[in-house]
Amino acid sequence: MSALRTRFTETFGIEHPIVQGGMQWVGRAELVAAVAEAGALGCLTALTQPTPEALTAEIARTKEMTDRPFGVNLTILPTITPVPYDEYRQAIVESGIRIVETAGNLPTEHVEALRPRGVKIIHKCTSVRHALKAQSLGVDAVSIDGFECAGHPGEDDVPGLVLIPRAAEELSIPIIASGGFGDGRGLVAALALGADGINMGSRFMATVEAPIHDTVKQAIVEGTELDTELIFRQLRNTSRVASNAVSREVVEELRQGAGFQDVRHLVAGARGRTVYEEGDLDAGIWSVGQVQGLIHDVPTVRELVDRVVAEASDIISARLAGLVADPVTAG
């Protein structure tokens, strides 16, 4: 298999320019270790673990499965219960983790605390202006989320086809394209648009090693690009989730003027966790992106990564190379 070397693979010491970013309730040791073993960058989701001590144990469990590099995601969003970020950061550093993915608000405190300890930081954001701010803070790379993504796409509604090259025009650090990526075609497109790699979330959910119920994986396979809902639009906190009885109820309640407190019981994180653990697709809100329209099977992580890289390499060396006319014969 041909290697695809980019600024991202060189900077972070990863074999393939593919990232499995943090996903609440999903980014656990089984998946992350499999991604690392396949030569991509996997990220544990720190706040899936209830305490910093539990994160330390999960990092240790991952290291028992792989000796390859992996990262930890730290999401920075408003919470009802304050998060002891300093203790989570300490757990990361003391466990020897050297790559952290941040997301949400600006990662100022994380950069100031982690970079002096030799930790490289990838910040995930949804706009060029936020990416530029993160770059000015000293992050090592930016993961830029287009409107197609699962989770929080921001409020600008700019799809990746425009957002990625705009980011490439403005930034000097490596860029990971996120939102809508699930195969080799997407990887080639991202590289052509100026990115240095891709982030896949929903695609990694539909793998053998993903620690979620098989019913959820099959729902992703059967879903189309039309089977998502955008909730919290009226609250300026948009989130793309699977279309189900709960998400449709949230959309309708907010459309009729309800506030967050009116739907809080519907969107509780514990309900979403039940979906992943028990396979009841209508038990709560769960995240998936429009890329599910391109997901047609549940391979192992290695099969998926190998396929994406092989397909991308073939497109670059065969199909695209064949489109370039020989100047001699063309004349």
TrEMBL record:
Matches recorded under Pfam families: NMO (PF03060)
Keywords: Flavoprotein, FMN, Monooxygenase, Oxidoreductase
InterPro entries per the UniProt record, alphabetical: Aldolase_TIM, NMO
Its EC number(s): 1.13.12.16
A GO molecular-function annotation: nitronate monooxygenase activity
CDD domains, per database record: NPD_like
Superkingdom in the source lineage: Bacteria
Record protein name field: Nitronate monooxygenase
